[in-house]
């Protein structure tokens, strides 16, 4: 039986939010200048298994903030002397609210973070490093765990994950006699075939602009390219892998395969359901939206598949992490709550409440995920998903990629010139480390 997935569109937007706490990084806000520990943990004294006590204030964003109370009530039942106070924070104001709280020394105990915010805020010294032994990092998807690690130190843990897969019209693919693509060459043939079968546009891709880096960057990863060199000191945009990624991406616009406009929330669902667009990339929340808006009869007209690739089929991974502030007045209970939220059985319950996908791999063995035709594909894709480096300047650098990609899809620059410009500007911005 297919489980409906209902999500808000804000999650992946939050994962790539573009704002910076530059003043905090410069001033340090009176906090320590470096990590509180070494390795993948080191946040001080280990957390024991005794019941949690006292009050824990948690900030959670978007839908998570609205429904976390339901799950927190179960933790309170298991720990009668603890009280979890959840404050729901809109994604639109979350970044600035956290920055203001850090600057003013008025932070909660625990906060949820978009994955690309971790490096930026960790550089302020505001978070405690994850206590050694709190969780087993190997229990998490590698790409997800990496979003919590800055300079070899983990700050908090991944709470839920998102990744992108290819949504496609199965009826059009069947009419064209095509199976979902696994390579770039097949991807081009597949999307052209969807057009020949009736779609006006074979695929919808962001033609640059906000967070479009999330769509082109995996194409560099798929060839072995990356954002930084191995020791994390230099950007590596001006490379054959990045130039080829830009060339392959822009070819869909040059050949009239990709919708030239950027379709926003609401538009992409309508265009896909009416057959105007044959394929697009998105996270799991779109399954529920399509089933709701397309009706029961549409369930047999679309499917999802892992992203096509070259040497690999790597996709982008985002999601939400949980971090504990250095200034918490209830350190032990805060980490105990974070640890409890990271347990497989808790994450399965959390999915039933929020439809957030588990960051812990063992949770995916549950039939809820393994037997679902949509969710099982996301689970497979998470085995080959990656996040950008957790550096304080990533918001600035990614904005440059967005800008140059828009120029390239419009034909105002070449792929070679685009990646050269990104390299030059990124080098000027620096890694902030």
From TrEMBL:
Belongs to the bacterial solute-binding protein 1 family. Keywords: Signal, Transport. It comes from the Bacteria. Pfam families: SBP_bac_1. Residues 1-27 form the signal peptide. The keyword Protein biosynthesis does not apply. PROSITE patterns: PROKAR_LIPOPROTEIN (PS51257). This is Sugar ABC transporter substrate-binding protein.
């Amino acid at each position: 039986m297919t489980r409906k997935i209902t999500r808000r569109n804000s999650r992946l937007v939050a994962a790539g939010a573009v704002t910076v706490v530059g003043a905090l990084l410069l001033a340090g806000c009176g906090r320590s200048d470096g990590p509180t520990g070494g390795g993948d943990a080191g946040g001080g004294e280990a957390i024991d298994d005794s019941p949690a006590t006292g009050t824990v204030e948690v900030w959670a964003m978007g839908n998570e903030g609205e429904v976390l109370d339901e799950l927190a009530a179960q933790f309170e039942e298991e720990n009668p002397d603890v009280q979890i106070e959840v404050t729901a924070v809109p994604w639109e104001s979350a970044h600035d609210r956290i920055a203001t709280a850090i600057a003013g020394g008025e932070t909660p105990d625990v906060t949820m973070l978009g994955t690309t915010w971790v490096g930026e805020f960790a550089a302020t010294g505001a978070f405690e490093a994850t206590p050694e032994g709190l969780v087993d990092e190997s229990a998490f998807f590698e790409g997800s765990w990496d979003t919590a690690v800055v300079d070899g130190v983990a700050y908090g843990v991944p709470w839920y994950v998102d990744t992108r897969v290819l949504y496609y019209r199965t009826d059009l693919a069947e009419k064209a006699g095509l199976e979902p693509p696994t390579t770039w060459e097949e991807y081009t043939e597949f999307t052209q075939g969807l057009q020949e079968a009736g779609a006006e546009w074979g695929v919808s891709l962001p033609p640059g602009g906000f967070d479009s880096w999330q769509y082109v960057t995996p194409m560099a990863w798929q060839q072995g390219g990356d954002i930084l060199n191995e020791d994390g000191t230099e950007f590596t945009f001006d490379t054959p892998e990045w130039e080829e990624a830009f060339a392959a991406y822009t070819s869909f616009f040059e050949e009239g395969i990709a919708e030239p406009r950027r379709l926003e929330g609401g538009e992409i669902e309508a265009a896909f359901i009416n057959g105007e667009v044959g394929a697009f990339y998105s996270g799991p929340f779109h399954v529920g939206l399509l089933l709701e808006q397309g009706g029961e009869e549409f369930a047999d007209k679309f499917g999802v598949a892992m992203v096509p690739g070259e040497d690999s089929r790597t996709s982008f991974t985002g999601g939400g992490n949980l971090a504990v502030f250095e200034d918490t007045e209830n350190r032990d209970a805060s980490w105990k709550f974070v640890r409890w939220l990271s347990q497989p059985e808790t994450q399965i319950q959390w999915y039933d409440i929020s439809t957030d996908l588990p960051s812990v791999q063992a949770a995916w063995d549950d039939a809820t995920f393994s037997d679902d035709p949509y969710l099982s594909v996301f689970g497979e894709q998470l085995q080959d998903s990656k996040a950008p480096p957790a550096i304080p300047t990533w918001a600035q650098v990614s904005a440059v990629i967005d800008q140059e990609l828009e120029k390239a899809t419009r034909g105002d620059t070449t792929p070679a010139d685009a990646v050269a410009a990104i390299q030059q500007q990124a080098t000027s911005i620096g890694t902030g480390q």
